[in-house]
Amino acid sequence: MIQDGSSATDTSETPLEWIRTQIPAFLHLIRSSRSENTHRSYSNALNLYQQIIQDYSSQENSVEKYLEETLSLFIDYLHDYSAATERLYLTAFYRFLEFLSAQDNSAINLPHFRLIIRHRARRYGQRLPQFPRSEIEEIIKYAINITNQMPESEAERLRLLRDKALLLTLADSGLRIHEACNLRRGDLDWAEQRAIIIGKGNQQAVARFSSRSIKAIKEYLNARAKLDGNSGKPITSLPIFARHDRAAGKKIKPISTTTGRAIVEHHVKMALGGNASDLITPHSFRHYFVTTVLRGSGGNIKLAQELARHKSISVTQRYAHLSDDELDQGYDEIFNRSPLPKN
Length: 343
Fold this sequence. Notes:
It is a single chain. The protein has two domains: 112 residues; 192 residues, hpI Integrase, Chain A (Orthogonal Bundle). The N terminus is likely disordered. The chain contains 15 helices and three strands. With 343 residues, it is mainly α. Strands 1-2-3 form a three-stranded antiparallel sheet, with no helix packed on it.
């Protein structure tokens, strides 16, 4: 180890060599103290960092100065990733710096590194919900596969089937979390794949469902059929998404909005790691839904407004972010394909 925490010359190790010996120790600590998903996310972040600095040539013998230089490289490289991934990977890197700082003989100026990250990393807007599209698509893939291996416990199986159905419903229907939690079996028209709901402002509205979300709901309700049949209540009055905890027992009770949010938070952590839950909320799925409609319809604001059930089209327009590909295409068509006026 570098004895003074700032110079590699005493042990003939370069800063790169010393840092590479510390990363496995840090990840071992994370594996033993944090979730598997957090360990995987931190591993991905630090593996990428190592790839970036592998061929970086520096005459700097100070570990802290070397870390400062390579952090700047890392941040620049992460600008090609989504904002959510950038934030997650920089969190992992900062936790690694904390680990180095906690070593007996290591002196890392953490406030200085916090300042670098604050000024160099992208800032996050406050007006719209956080919307990392690629991460939400990862969660959708994860949700589709979470029932591939079912647990032995009936309650756990029902929870997994319910959670899969809920995540796909949020992504593909644009329902607000409280609207999804309030759904009753009688609300759904299975043939038309839509439901009459009481939406925002206590207004009746129509929500449409994708084939994959309908399939997931049917799989869940089929597994729950015995409980529903023994409930003593009309099937149409029973909730789509029910509780499956000890307190509920065999009664069919709807999940609350708080539970719905907790389900989303849990699976976001499972799919992407603990820090991602700060970026992705149930409303992020609604944002994903609206922008997916806009992308798929060629930017049809009116269609997106109707499907999202926005009273004002100006609300829909706030969600109408163009993707980088669309921006590139638009720029290319204007400046490269169309004849420009000559001076």
